[in-house]
Write a structure and sequence with these properties.
InterPro entries: Formyl_transferase-like_C_sf, MPG, MPG_sf. It holds the Pfam family Pur_DNA_glyco. It catalyses: Hydrolysis of alkylated DNA, releasing 3-methyladenine, 3-methylguanine, 7-methylguanine and 7-methyladenine. One of its GO terms (molecular function) is alkylbase DNA N-glycosylase activity. The protein is of the alpha+beta class and about 290 residues long. The protein has a domain of about 170 residues: Roll (3-methyladenine DNA Glycosylase, Chain A), CATH 3.10.300. Helix content is about 20%, strand content about 20%. It is built from eight helices and eight strands. Strands 1, 2, 3, 4, 5, 6, 7 and 8 form an eight-stranded antiparallel beta sheet that branches. Strand 4 and strand 5 form a beta hairpin. The longest helix has 12 residues.
């Protein structure tokens, strides 16, 4: 009887719906191991509040912010206190204004892209293909924002793997660590970033934030590759702008561009950025990001 009673209590405690999204919780193939001590390294056991990045960090032009994100750590605190962490290794800038690939091109404001016009550090989450999500962060500039494209998983990989598996076909092969967050919609799945995070403040939110890693040096200019953005080929000349940035040689980058890597070493990619390309009064986003 005692064993049967404990089983009933456990079933009663299991949530049927995600409290944040209102959607039915994904059925995981195995129970999530949520004990923080098993997921934390010696670094993460420290008081991480001192490493959290505040509003001043986000208050910079879009292209500068996209590069500054590289090497920073995105943190997601789950309802049970488990913290998932991933180092940002790939971003894209969307400058709005004349940038035809941006959701805010021409200064267009809609209910969906409101976050792009809010203060720097505001989260912009939007759906693609009706089922996937992408996470962006607003910067300086009217309608400007940075897309987070890829992360290097640092903490909570077992949880990330199960969150990803819940959205994959039954019997699919297990994902390698480098495949957990190597794409904008993949990282949203792996860190359980819901649509309701849209318009939240990354500088002060209790469930998701950005940290600096005191044990990692900032990426050097020669280690940052500037390449064309992904999934915006229909936008003509704007598809060729080298506004995707990633850490050279990192295995978690979603798409490697060898030509851009050679040009980045020669300095050609930066020479392609004219004065109008780096003005902080533009803003945006991709139409298609996978």
């Amino acid at each position: 009887m005692a064993g049967r009673k404990r089983k009933k209590l456990a079933l009663a405690a299991a949530p049927e719906h995600d409290k944040q999204t209102g959607l039915k919780a994904a059925k995981l193939k195995e129970p999530i191991q949520s004990k923080n001590t098993a997921e934390r390294s010696h670094y993460f056991m420290k008081n991480t509040l001192q490493h959290r990045l505040g509003k001043d960090f986000f208050n910079q032009p879009c292209i500068s912010l996209a590069k500054a994100f590289l090497g920073k750590v995105l943190v997601r605190r789950c309802e049970d206190g488990t913290e998932l962490r991933g180092r940002i290794v790939e971003t894209e800038s969307y400058l709005g204004g004349e940038d035809k690939a941006s959701h805010s091109a021409g200064g267009k404001r809609t209910e969906r892209n409101t976050a792009m016009f809010m203060k720097p550090g505001t989260i912009y989450v939007y759906p693609i293909y009706g089922i996937y999500l992408c996470m962006n962060v607003s910067s300086e500039g009217e309608g400007a924002a940075v897309l987070l494209r890829s992360l290097e998983p640092l903490q909570g990989q077992p949880v990330m793997r199960q969150l990803r598996a819940a959205r994959r076909k039954e019997g699919a092969r297990p994902l390698k660590d480098k495949e957990l967050c190597n794409g904008p919609s993949k990282l949203c799945q792996a860190l359980n970033i819901p649509r309701c995070f849209d318009r939240r403040d990354l500088a002060s939110d209790p469930e998701v934030w950005l940290e600096g890693d005191p044990d990692t040096s900032p990426a050097k200019p020669q280690d940052i590759v500037s390449a064309p953005r992904i999934g915006i080929e229909s936008h003509g000349e704007w598809a060729k702008k080298p506004w995707r940035f990633y850490i050279r040689g990192h295995p978690c980058v979603s798409v490697v561009n060898k030509e851009a890597e050679r040009e980045s070493l020669s300095g050609k990619a930066m020479n392609d950025l004219g004065p109008s390309d780096v003005q902080p009064d533009t803003g945006q986003h991709n139409v298609k990001r996978t």
